[in-house]
Each structure stands twice: as structure tokens, then as C-alpha cells.
Amino acid sequence: MPSVGVAEIVSTVVQPDLFAAAIRIATPLALAAIGGTICERSGVVNIALEGLMLISAFFGVAAALACPVVLGITGVAASWIGVLAAILAGVVMASLHAFASITLKSNQVVSGTAINILALGLTGFLIQVFYQRTGTTDSAVLIPPLFAFDPKPSGGLATAWNWFSGVALGHTPLVYITIVIAIAAQWALYRTRWGLRLRALGEHPRAADTVGISVVRGRYMAVLMSGALAGLAGANLTLEQVGSFSENMTAGRGFIALAANIFGRWTPVGSYLAALLFGFAEALEIRLQAFIGVIKIPPQFFLMLPYILTVVVLAGFMGRAVAPAAVGKPYEKE
Amino acid sequence: MPVLELRGVTKVFPGVVANDDVSLTLERGEIVALLGENGAGKSTLMNVVYGLLTPDGGEILVDGNPVRIRRPRQAIDLGIGMVHQHFMLVETLTATENIVLGREPTRLGVVDLAVARASVVELSERYGLKVDPDKRVMELSVGMQQRVEILKALYQGARILILDEPTAVLTPQEVTELFGVVRSLVTAGLSVVLITHKLEEVLASADRVVVMRDGRVVGETRPSDTDEISLARMMVGRDVVLRVEKGPANPGEVALEVTDLDVDDDRRLHAVKGVSFQVRRGEVVAIAGVSGNGQSEIIEAIVGLRRPRGGSITLLGHDITHSSTASTIAAGVSHVPEDRHRRGLVLEFDLAENLILGDHRRMPFSRRGFLRPKAIAATAKKRISEYDVRTPSASVLAGNLSGGNQQKLVLARELGRDPECLIAAQPTRGLDVGAIEFVHKRILAERDAGKAVLLVSLELEEVQSLADRILVIYEGRLVAEFAGGQVDAETLGVYMTGGGRGAASGVSTTGGVSA
Amino acid sequence: MSTPEEITAQRARWMTVAQKAGTPLMSVLLAMIVGSLIVLASGGDPVAAFSSLWEGAFGNAYQTGETIMRSTPLIFTGLAIAYGFRAGLFNIGAEGQLFMGGLAAAWLGIVLAGLPWFVILPVMLVLSAVAGALWAFIPALLKAKVGAHEVITTMMFSFIARYFVSYMLNGPLKAPGPGGTPGTIPISAVLPPQSTLPKFTDLFPWLPPNNAHVGFLVAIGVAVVVWLLLKYTTVGYEARAVGFNPFAAQTGGVSIALTTVWSLCISGSLAALAGASEVMGVHHRLSDQFSAGFGFTGIAVALLAKNHPIAVIPAALLFGGLAAGSGFMQLNANVPDKLVDIVQALVIFFVAAESIITWFIKRRQKEATRNA
Q1: Between chain A's N and C termini, which has fewer beta carbons within 10 Å?
Q2: What CATH code would you report for A6-140+158-317?
Q3: Residues B140, B209 share a domain
Q4: Is it true that the peptide bond before B373 is cis, omega within 30 degrees of 0?
Q5: Does B76 touch chain A (CB under 8 A)?
């Protein structure tokens, strides 16, 4: 017989911080996944999200660390400049992918793979060049949470407040910005001219072309936007969560993001919710570690979940999951 | 003043003059039918007008002003709209979204769907083009999709509407409705160019008919001044360049028998409707018809590339209706596909590798899963010389051969197998005269060796010179049968284009030679 | 005696070989030039960097042994990716099949420990390959039946494999600690000697000390087998036909679905051999960090080899040499070893250089017509 009862485990694990952690873990995944959604909706496969995140995470920290010396800006302000640098790094790296896959019409998966390897090598290389050591950079100033979390004494409404503030308050700015981006991107995709044209590009670029929509320009825009969003994801990792950059710190998050994009059926809000689900699985796994002797589910199962679910979706077991029809195909004019 | 005028438009593709000095006028409120066989250059001409192709010579005038159209956008801005044979619709978007795409009514970048929808409803009511504006295109019938295409052109401000083979995908009722719509469009002041190869449509709907053949305009008339026979003559009549010598046929037992065959096409439309015919040993049976009338689907069903919906296919008495392609080949059916680059050859393979495709699992080319290079090389050498494939060696890639030599390679493989039955689709498409003669001789040699030959061709001349019996297909049905050498091209042309129904009433389409 | 035609044909064949090798060599050269620029920009000495890289890769017997050791798994993964490409499939999940191969080897090596080495070694290799094939089977089936893209499914399966291995190493396969105490680190027990691949120095004691093991010979042998498979069997013939032109293959009676399943499974089995050879020849046990991204480097190897099984060997030696020399370079030229990854990524980009070249030509032509 286990020494700890199930009810006890539930009450220990199901606490506000579990959900807060899920939201926190989901944020970089969701940002990159929304980037992937926009990119793939335009007809360009983006398996480079991992590399884009990694390179931005590094340049975010590097810029924040350089700020005091170069610009004389210190503290959180430097970190915000780091966020901008991260976005820029993501866009620059994404432009490489755009050039290869749109202009040169080379294999988009090959190009993405090259970017992932390049990001890994370049960041490792630059750590040593900039900081004369391997593995990790110095720490930048972390961007603090937006709201102060203020627990009230227990009882009645106070419990509800504590839950609310524990789950929803106390996050860093990009966490909220991500939610705004998810909703805004969803709205833009289905309500704006840009979104309508983007959807047309990924489904039937020729139809778009015959009514005068530039396929090349539209796809470049989308790939660069995915770079910017992956850049924000990288910035969140280093400047809001960890503070420093360490080698390969994205550790496959870019691929989970790709999975979230698919699981979310190529929609921004869907991507966010999928990221949230995957984030929840990971948060739960971390908290259940404490009860490893009682709960017999191996922790690896929770970590596998995003990948298994994605395959299940692709296999068609959960309704039709249809990628944009023209995704991965370079556009050829006659 | 004509709203659209073409003067001496010329378009050259590598090796082919698709449009040769074509001139044409279109008046306001007029329906001009552009009539011609496949490959006569109709669609090319209209793609030039729409800015999808760049002309090599000539002038285009809109409202009397010379214009240069290099992109569809420019054509649209000049008031030219085109409904393509393959619809340019985004299936996952709604009818309204498709119609306004590229010219969306927006407020600060936000698509004003209410305004868009209202314009669509207004347009569709004005011209009697009923569509559900909120349905996604993938949920609409083909006829509905076509209306969306027409509405799209109208929404973009088209005054000149080009319809490319608009009836090819429609049911008879939809065709009637379409022509009603077209009539109301011209009454409202639009002008319409109707690309078609169907005589009845021309006679029923056009104000003027322009007939094209081999890239040139060969005649112009009004429906009231002409009839099916003379139109067909204009369309297909040409100087006979070559005709192979051939002896009388010596038909033997039935080799291939197709009974009540029903086949769907890729769009799941009923493409072959209750087709029955036989091919005997020692005869060439040709299926004549305009492309897209179900010929490809018949062949694909026979060779196992497409599952028939109903009916049966037997080879020498054995049922092969649901056989795989591999076992159909093994049973003795050889197939010269209509598109040799797509289906006939692996262009990245060398000649020897191409020559064993389909036989590669059998002796002498392989044993227990291992290829036998010596046997393959020996056979390749033999077939290459036997079929006069001009190449420095058998290890040259098929993609490096000329078109004629590629087709000889396909023949070398398919005939070299010594089949019971040969199915040849468009076997001389794109070949020069010498290669055509070679292919024709080979096909007749197969017949004389007692093989059953089924020929599918869009070239009437080829049908007439090779066939012992001619079946005419129109909209998925066999509509007439003639003995070879006893029918002229005009008559065939009439049947192929849906005419001559009255005259055809006495013609049997199931059994032996009747006409 | 050769006829003039045969001589011309032979010469043409050599010309095409030279042409085929041209782009890869060019792309390696370009990657090294760009790599040098990066070194220069970071304040290093590119000449020192690349000469010490060379020194570290082939400078002495020990370093050459390191190169051979590191290129061994790359030959296998390079073959895996190349075989997939030949059949029109992008097996980006080779890393996962590699993990399953390693897992199978680590388990079998202990289970079969009672058998003599000449039975146990081939059985381990074959069954590891089967494990990789099985791991590729579901993505292959999904591709053939519902058209689920193998890039996504094999990638997902590769993560699942890594977590599965992690689970096994934390549970059933975890090595006991000293004196029978429960183990603390996720690592499997050490294989008995009869289930490991010997080092060359074990077989030939007169060789100078180095770490190369006979897995390298196995890899070369497998490369030859794959080459023969593609060239001289119906399975390989059909794979190539489908890869080049599925429609023509189908018209020739080849089942696209069946060929897809076979090809991806063969690819998976080749990747699994990389894992098995690492476990059996290098680490002699399984840990969850035993692959240095060999599955991904295999993509670079295959691209550089233009998917030719024999050309995979030199391509793998190149990347193996880069890996072996990188530490040496860091030590002696003070250039970060990560330069090697950058060069590798650049090689991948530049192998697509063919299209860069055609793109330039097209642009030139466009400008010419515009000016005319």
C-alpha cells in the first residue's frame, strides 16, 4: 500500500502554481507555434523554429549584456533592448530560410535543417568568442513579472483570489503579450485582408497570383514574421525565464512548437491551446516527480505526449487534420 | 469599335507555333465562339489575352487602344475576366472570400465581409447566378464553383469575359443554365468569348463563330449561315500528310472485352458511362474523341491504375476488372501511356533500366529479387537496335533522348514484351513525321502478328489511317461506330463534338462492324 | 578491346562522375571559405584553425583513429538518409531509429551474453536493424495509407524514441550501482566483451594505439550492400523508380505504397545500425546522451554524397574528421570547436548551391533581356 493517498497527491499537485507553470512553459512554445502557423499558412514549411528560437535567445542575452557597455543602458531597460535584438536575430535568420526556400526554391526541409545546425554551431561559437568560456553566457537582468502577486489570508473569496492571482498574475510581460498575439493573429488571419490573402497563398498560390496578389512578397512577409515570433520565444526563454543563455537551451522546444502548430490545426489560438496542453503535461510531470514511487506512470510518458498526440492527429484519428494544400511546394510561374 | 481586337497575334513554344498570325474581333454585347480541336491554339490565344502568356508578335487592342498585357492584374484592370478550365478557386475559402480576393472591400485593413457579401448577392441576383455566398468552395458542386468563378470575374469589373471550355464539367441542366446566364450577361452589355469544341453549343449560343486549326484562324461565320457538317469540316479538315500502307484486317478471337464499364475521374465525377466494346486479335480498334471525354479513364481502368465503379473487363476470357497493374501486365496487356514523360518513362533512369520497367520482377531480368545485368544489357542492346532508338549507348539517361526516340523506347519496352493486347494512347503526340511513320508501322505490325490493338487518339488522321474499327466517344459514352476507311473526318468530327445524334440513331455501339 | 563508342561512353561516364563530384567539392570549399571569414571576424587565425583541424583529424594514428571512429555512425546515418532520398522520402527521424537500434543492442548484448561472439555479434546487429525498421514502420504505414508526411511523423517518432530510451534507462535497463545497490544514473550495464565490437588494436596489437573499431568495416560493408541493393535488386530498382517518378513506376506495375513502406523501413534499419555500432564499439553501454546528433549530421552526409552509397563513405569521413579535429583546433588554434557545426550547416546550404548558380544565371539573363 502506498504511504500517500491519491487524494493527498491531488491536493498537493493541483495548486495554482501547476497552472501558472503550464502557462509559463507554454509561452515560448506558443510564440514559435504561431510563427509556424503563419509561415505554413503562406505555403512555406518551417522546421527551423528550433534554430530561430535558439539564435534569438542568444542574441537577446548578448544584446542585453552589451547594453551597459555600448549604450550605457542598464537594468531591465537593457533586457528590453535584448528583446528587440532577439526579434531582429530571428528575422535575419528567417530571411535566410526565405531566400533559400522562396527565391532559390530549394528543399524547405533541407534549408530548415541547415538553419537548426547553424544556430547550434553559431551560438556555441559565439559564447566562446564573446565570453571566453564554453556552455553558458553571463546573466542578464531578468524582466520582472508585470503584476505583484499578493496572497490574501484564507477563507471564502480570498481562496478564489489566491487561485486567480496564483494562476494568472505574477507572469512576465511576454506571457501576456503571447496571449494577445494569439488572439490578434487569429483575428487577423480570419478578418483582415492580410489574413485572407495569406490563406489563399498557402492553399492555391496560382489563384492568388491570377487576381494580382504577389506570391513571393506574401511568403517572404510570412517567413519573416515567423522569425520575429520565434525571436520573441527565444527572448522569453533567456530574458524572462533563465537570465543567461546556455548551449542548446531550446532543447527541442522548436519541434514541440511545430507539433503544437499541427495539433492546433494551423490556427493561432489552436496553437496556443495546444502549447498550453503540452505545457500542462510538462508541468504535471515535474510535480509528479515527487511521487515517483506512488504514481506508476513514467515521467517520460508526459514528455512524449505532445509527439504522440501529433502523430495521432496526423493519422486522422481525431478528425481531418489538413495542412495548407500548397505547403512545401515552391511556386512556379508558367 | 470592337471592345477587343487581336491583330496578328503569334505565340511560339519550343518546336511549335501555337498561334500563327491570329486576328480576331469582339464587339460589345456579342458572344464569339472560338471553335477548334484540342491543340488548335484556342486556350493559348486566350491565355495571351489574359496576360498568362507573353505573345511573340502581334497587337492587342482594347476599346481601340493598343495595350500590353503581361500579368493577369493588367488584364483585370482592362476589364478582361477569364474563367479557366481548371478553376482558380481557393477551396477552403467561402464563395464570397474567393470572389473578392485581390479587391477586398476593407476598412483599415479589415475585410468588410458585410459589404463583400452584399456585393456578391447583388451581382448574383443581377445576372441570375445563384450561389450560397457563405459556403466554402469545397462544399459547392462543380456547377456552383463555375458560377463563383464567373462572379469573381464580374466582381473584378470584367466587361470582356473569356470562358475556357465551360461546359466540360457540367451536367446538361447546368449547361442550359450557363447559357442562360451568358445570354443575360451580353444583354447587360458584356462581351463573351466562348472557347469550345462542341458544335451544338456553338450553334445554340454564339453570335459569331471563329474556327481555329493548327494555330491559325481558318474560318469565320455565323450560326445561321452554317451547319454542323461544314463547321466540322472547317475544324478537322486538313491535307492528309501521310497514310501508311495497310492490308486488310484478319480479326480472330475476342482478346479484350469491356462490358458496361463505369469509371469515375479524379474529381469523382462519372466520366465513363456504361461503355462496352470488344477488341479481337488481329484488329486495330480506335476510340476517337476530343480529350477529356473519358478515354483516359477507360484506359486507366483496363490497365489497373483506376478502380472501375462498375462493369467488367476480360482479357482472353480471364477477368481482369480488379487486377493490379502488375498482374495486368503479366496477363499480357501492354500500355503506351498518353504522357510519356509523366507515365511512360523514368527520365532519370538509363535506357536499359527503362526497358525493363514492368518486367523487372520476371525472368530473364531478375531472379529471386536480384536483377540480372547481363540479360538486361543484352535485351536492351537488342531492343534498341530493333526499334531504332538513336543513342550512343544503353546507359544514356532517357531524359537525354529526343521525343521521337523516347517514344520508340516506350514502344520497345511495351512491344518487346510480346503482349496479347496493346493499348496505345496518343502514341504519336508531339513526334515528327519520321517518328510518326515508325510508330504507325509498328502498331500495324502488331496487328498483323495477331495482337489485339486498342488505339486512343485525338488525331482523326491517325485514327483513320490505322483503325479497322472506329468507336466515337463523347461525354463518357460511345456514340457511334464505323468501319475503318468508310467514314470521313467530317462525319467523325460531328460525332466527336456531340452532333449527329439524329443520324446516329441506327448505329450499334455494342457489337461488330455496322456502319 | 573497346570500340570507339564504348570509349566515348566511358569518357562520358567519367565526365558525369566529375560533374557530380564538382558541386559537393565546391560547397565544401565555399563552406570553408565562409568558415575562415567567421574565424577572421572573431579575431582568430583561419590558417591556424584549419591546419590544426587537419592535424586533429589525420595528424597521427591516434587522431586518424578518432576520425574513423566518429565517421562510423555517420556512414550508417548517411546511408539511411540517402536511401530514403533515393525513394523520395525524407527520413528526418533517423536519430530516433538510431536510439532504438542502440537500445536493442544494449539489451541484446546482455540477454544473449551466453552465446559465443561469432553468433552474438551478427544477431545483435541484425536485430538492432530490425528494431530500427520497426520504429520506422508506423510512419511508413501512415505515409502509404493516409499520406501523413514522413518529415513530421518520423521527427515525432524520434522524440518518442528518445523518451522511451530515457524511460528504459531509468527503469528496466538501469545498471545497478556498486555492490548491488540500486543505480543512480540513467545508464545501462556494461556489455560483456563478447558482445562488443573489438578495436582494431585488439585484433592487430602491432597497430599504434587508437580508438577505431571494426564497426567501421561493417559500415563500409553495409555501404557496399546498400549500393548493390539499389543497383542490383528489384527492391532497390523499385525504390529508385518511385523516387524519380512515382507515376511511371505505378504504370510499370510498382506499388507505391509497398515501396514506401519497404524503403522507409530499410532506411530506419540503417540508422539503427549507427546506434548499435556506437553502443557495441564505442561506449559498450547505453546512455541517453550517446548520440552526438548523428541522425542530423547524416542529412549533411547524404546531401554531400548526392545520395550515392559509396560516396557516403568519404562524406562521412569528412564530417567525422571535422568532429575529431575540432577539439584539437580549439586547443591549439584557440578557435571554438563549434566552428565545425557552422561549416556543416554551410555545406548543407551550399550543396543546394546548384540552384544558387542557376538563380544567378537566370537573373543575369533577365537583366540582359531587360537591357536589350
Answers
A1: N
A2: 1.10.3470
A3: yes
A4: no
A5: yes
* Averaged pLDDT for residues A133-149: 86
Give the chain B residue whose CA is nearest to the CA of A214: B102
Residues of A in contact with B102 (CB under 8 A): 197, 208, 211-213
Give how far Cα B1 sits from Cα of A186, B37, B62, B63, B65, Å.
Answer: 51, 30, 10, 7, 10
Tell me the pLDDT tens digit for each residue of B65-117. Answer: 999 998 888 999 999 999 988 889 999 999 999 999 999 999 989 999 999 99
B356 CB neighbours in chain C (<8 A) are 237
CA separation for the pair A174, A195 (Å, rounded): 23
- Rounded Cα distance, C127 and A266, in Å: 39
- For residue B419, give the C-alpha cell: 503482349
B97 to chain A: nearest residue by CA?
A196
Q: What is the C-alpha to C-alpha distance for residues B344 and B415, in angstroms, rounded to an integer?
A: 13
Whole-Å CA distances, A146 to A23, A163, A171, A238: 15, 17, 6, 17
ipTM of the prediction: 0.86
Is C338 within 8 Å of A303 when comparing Cβ atoms? no
pLDDT tens-digit series, residues A175-195:
999 999 999 999 999 999 999
What are the extents of the domains in chain A? 6-140+158-317
| Mean pLDDT for the stretch of residues B292-296 | 89
For A62-75, letters b (16+ CB in 10 Å) and e give bbbbbbeeeeebee
**Residue that is last in its domain, among B206, B236, B266:** B236
Domain assignment present for residue C35? The answer is: no
pLDDT band at residue B312 using 50, 70 and 90 as cut-offs: very high
Do B37 and B182 have their domain in common?
Answer: yes
pLDDT band of residue C65 (cuts 50, 70, 90) is very high
Q: Which of B417, B446, B466 lies at the terminal end of a domain, its last residue?
A: B417
Give me the number of domains chain B comprises.
3
Q: Are residues B410 and B431 in the same domain?
A: no
Pairing of strands B333-336, B421-425: parallel
A189: chain B residues, CB-CB within 8 Å: none
Give B328-371 pLDDT, tens digit per residue: 999 999 999 988 888 999 999 999 999 999 999 998 999 999 99
Question: Which of C159, C341, C356 faces A124 most closely, judged by CB atoms?
Answer: C341
Q: Which amino acid is at B187?
A: T
**pLDDT confidence of residue B507:** 42
Which residues make Cβ contacts (< 8 Å) with residue B90, sequence separation at least 6? A199, A200, A203, A204, A207, A208, B97, B98, B101, B137
CA distance A201 to chain B (A): 9
Q: What is the CATH number of the domain that holds C296?
A: 1.10.3470
Q: Is residue B241 part of a domain?
A: no
Question: B157 — contact with chain A (CB < 8 Å)?
Answer: no
CATH code at position B457 = 3.40.50.300
Per CB-CB distance under 8 Å, the chain A contacts of C362 are none
Which residue of chain C is at minimal alpha-carbon distance from A105? C355
Chains touching chain B through at least 3 C-beta pairs below 8 angstroms are: A, C
Answer whether B156 touches A (CB < 8 Å). yes
Contact C220, C75 (CB under 8 A): yes
Q: Which of residues 252-291 of C touch B (CB under 8 A)?
A: 252-255
Residue B504 reports pLDDT greater than 50: no
Confidence label for B509 from pLDDT (cuts 50, 70 and 90): very low
Chains that touch A (3 or more CB pairs under 8 A): B, C
Q: Give the structural domain span for B140.
A: 4-236
- C338–chain A Cβ distance below 8 A for any pair: yes
Domain assignment present for residue B338? The answer is: no
Best B371, B400, B406 member to test C by mutation, with max C CBs in 10 Å, is B371
Lowest model confidence (mean pLDDT) among A18-32, A77-91, A295-309, C67-81: A295-309
Closest residue in C to B340 (Cα) is C248
Do B244 and B440 form a contact (C-beta atoms < 8 A)?
yes
Per the domain annotation, does C255 fall within a domain? yes
A293 or A55, higher pLDDT: A55
